[in-house]
Amino acid sequence: MIKARRRKLRIFRFTVLVVMGLFFFLPIGAMFEFSTRGNSINAPRTLDAWVQISQTPGLIKAITVSLQLAVITSIGMVALLLPTMVWVRLRLPQISRAVEFICLLPLTVPAIALVVGLRPIYRWIEINIDPSILTLAFAYLILVLPYSYRSLDAGLATIDLKTLSEAARSLGAGWGTVMLRIVIPNMPSAILNACLLSVALVLGEYTVANLLNFQNLQVAVAYVGLTNAGTSIAVAVGSLLLAFILLMVLALVGGRLQQQNYIPGQRT
Amino acid sequence: MTAAGNPAVTPARPTRGGRFTVTWVGVVPFFVYVGLFLLLPTAIIVVGSFTDPKGGFSLANFQGINKPYMLKSFQQSLIISAISAGAGAIFGSLLAYAVVTGNPNGILRRAVMSASGVLAQFGGVALAFAFIATLGTIGFVTEFLLNHGIDIFHNGVWLYETPGLILIYVYFQIPLMLLVFLPALDGLRPQWREAAESLGGSTWHYWRYVAGPLLAPSFLGCTLLLFANAFSAYATAAALLTQGGVLVPLQIQALITSETEAAQPGLAQALALAMIIIVVIVMSLYALLQRRTSRWLR
Amino acid sequence: MSAEITRGKAGIEVQLQDLSRRYGPVIALNDLNLTLAPGELVALLGPSGCGKTTAMRLVAGLEEANGGRVLFGGKDVTDLPANKRDVGMVFQAYSLFPHMTAMQNVAFGLRLRRKSSDERRQRAGEMLELVGLSGFADRYAHQLSGGQQQRVALARALAIEPTVLLLDEPLSALDAKVRSRLRDEIRHVQLEVGITTLFVTHDQEEALAIADRVGVMQSGHLEQLGPPTEIYSRPATPFVAEFVGLTNRLDGNVKSGAVEVRGTRLPLVQPDAADGPATALVRPEAVSLAVDGDLGTGPMVGTVIAVAFLGATSRVTVDLGDVTVLAQMPTATAAAHPAGTRVRLAFRDDPVLIAREEKAAVEA
């Protein structure tokens, strides 16, 4: 009786996993296949499309710029968010709810809607500060807020922030030292987690860049795709692989922090 | 978040009324930043929606939404979001069940969770192109089926229309459902099943009276989350439906990239505001349902 | 509908015959034979992994045996699935359905049996009253304390008038104070209803306190089965002696049917034991201390290093130089020799068990 139930479950699991596996890997496989196609149906496989990546100047520039944006956004996120969260935990616990709410707000504002309000601001930035695409980092930081906040919050919950910071301060450390030498070294996986999520988001971002007339990675992929489908798909596969690798690293290193049933504030 | 209550050790500096200011200085950068790049744009949208081209207060922009082609866009957006959310919820929960009934520390579970983390973010341009490579007119699967005598585009190339878009949305909805719904499934204690059995219940009874009601709020909440996710999506549609058209995000795009913007600057903002309101409502319901779930299925 | 309703079925005999269960190479249960008389409460006691929970789950039908039979009142239920066996079960934790009130939980089994809503309400109300929670019918699990939750779980299990009641370490997740009170209540309810009960626990105090008979298990088999007093004062094996209650392990030498321990000759539980070195197992209650007179020196003289106050009794730890001995006595007596006092030990003349294994004792 129990054996029958177990067998039914096994069949169910197998079916579901195989079907889903096919469904999800088919398009990815198709991308590989497409990007290695020759000129006609019967032409041999070729890496021409991949090679052409380096020969399409717009693409190289876009890739570089997106990587720069990813790094800037990550650093900016840590520099802005971490001190604030530490400060709130230590000095202003009464507003921690408000800070959490604000950090999760971007989840309720679709990027396409947000960009409508960002356009006038970016017009101003373009004229008065810098027309460079790197100013996109300002907007990206907002987009990554919810994911970064959750990661950093989970990490901060596991270290006894109050005790450590008081000990350091009583020994004469300034706040900068506390942050750099005490806080950050004690939550490496949470910070890594937050950074990798930010990088993945920035590399995959299209909406804001496109509608603010900037040419980032995804915008370039779309643009190139109009004329050279193979190459743009090659880039798309590349960016997907990169995101996959990043998130695999995340899973291996920051494993515990990803558990959804983690209750912040509770220490073992 | 630490428990509120204990004031931290006071700094050695002899501040009096100044201590209040010093403490709040620490969070000023954050609030200024968020104010500039999140609240200000939102304010611009809200104000702009109620402003006519001459600068005065007006509801004309909302009347602009009341046109047939615009309403059709809303309808399409809602339909596509609903269908992709529904399909994503059903298949995603089946997949979640298949994963959760396996070894919790096994490699299958970890691999599927990591893959889902990637695939849930895998949207936009890359995904659209992936599907073009699979099911486009010269796509891998298309050609394969053609070689076997099946022309899937017999009645038109549906990939670039609503059915195609729904299919593509389902591709990232399923992993998202897996990620957000799995914790609820994890929260089902084996004791409940065994208790139900020992009291005389069959598998059907268990699902009907115990597991079903327990999972329902989370399932519904996650479906709503998927709905908001699809509704907000822009990049995929933009890459796929290159002639623009019948979705709200695409209408916004058309408005802010066209030369006729000067004539109706507030319309895009009104549309953005409408989108925000819809998403806020849906996400609030989601949060409420999640709270109920976490009480039962910690 | 009278007070008789709480009686339910008359107690039914439960038999476990040659029950075996293995998980791959691991043998969880090895030909277990056990008969529970109608209305009897048998406690299965043992360390984790001894097979007690496996045995219970086989009786419940939540797992399938690899060999042997389970009989309820002579009827073979081995091939019946759990939901057809008519057992009442209380789990260690997470017993209650969180989305139902206490009343709905208790009535759940009745609902599955298509009882009318009036019947359900009446019966569930009676059950809640039986466990002393009449006013708590509309509370949800998260509004109840751990002890209250377990009482509701008990009411729920009994509501369906099961053949046998199975309790899987129901008190382990509770606070100490709640534990002892609830343990007595469970026993009281069990006696009142007269239901055959199997109680699994790793806490020997619990088992000894409430069971009609205790079965001590280790590594898948029963080491000893008998009334609590017998288990405690006449342990059949060294494992039982060391698992149940405290024991002093003292090196000694067996000669002609008695064992010589530190200069004292003590009779043996098994007088036909072979001569040679052995470890004698002496209960702390069998050790007495004397402070008066010239104590002299010798293997039975030492210093008190600690006195642990346990309420009515106290446990005195004595350092004899090469070994530490525990003695247990009324607190008033223990007051005569606080820490630091030199004392002389004496062993009561009770038969002792000996152990000849080289390895250390099993953890209780």
Chain oligomer state: heterotrimer
CATH class type of chain A = Mainly Alpha
**What's the tally of helices of chain A?**
12
H and E order of chain A: HHHHHHHHHHHH
The outline of chain C comes out as elongated
- How many domains in all of chain A? 1
Helix content of chain C: 10-25%
* E-strand count of chain A: 0
As residue ranges, the low-confidence spans of chain A are 256-268
User: Order of strands side by side in the largest beta sheet of chain C?
Assistant: 6-7-8-3-9-10
CATH superfamily (homologous) name of chain A: MetI-like
* Structural Rg of chain C: 24 Å
β-sheet strand percentage of chain A: under 5%
CATH architecture of chain A: Orthogonal Bundle
Structural class of chain A: mainly alpha
Rounded average pLDDT of chain C:
88
Shape of chain A: globular
Q: Sketch the major β-sheet of chain A.
A: none
Topology, number of strands of chain C:
20
Description:
The complex is a heterotrimer of chains A (268), B (298) and C (364). Chain A is an all-alpha fold and 268 residues long. Chain A has one domain: MetI-like (MetI-like fold), CATH 1.10.3720.10. Chain A has twelve helices and no strands. In chain A, helix 3 (57-90) packs across helix 6, helix 3 (57-90) packs antiparallel against helix 9 and helix 7 (161-170) crosses helix 8 (175-183). The model of chain A is unreliable at 256-268 (pLDDT under 50). By secondary structure, chain B is mainly alpha-helical. Chain B has two domains: 16-49, no CATH class; 62-296, Orthogonal Bundle (MetI-like fold), CATH 1.10.3720. Chain B is built from 13 helices and no strands. The longest helix of chain C has 18 residues, at 176-193. In chain C, helix 2 (102-112) packs across helix 3 and helix 3 crosses helix 4. Residues 1-7 and 359-364 of chain C have low confidence and may be disordered. Chain C is α+β, with helices and mostly antiparallel strands. Chain C has two domains: 3-238, Rossmann fold; 246-355, RNA polymerase II/Efflux pump adaptor protein, barrel-sandwich hybrid domain (OB fold (Dihydrolipoamide Acetyltransferase, E2P), Beta Barrel). In chain C, the strands form four sheets. Chain C has a six-stranded mixed beta sheet, sandwiched between helices. A five-stranded antiparallel beta sheet of chain C has the order 13-12-11-14-20. The chains are: A mainly alpha (268), B mainly alpha (298), C alpha+beta (364).
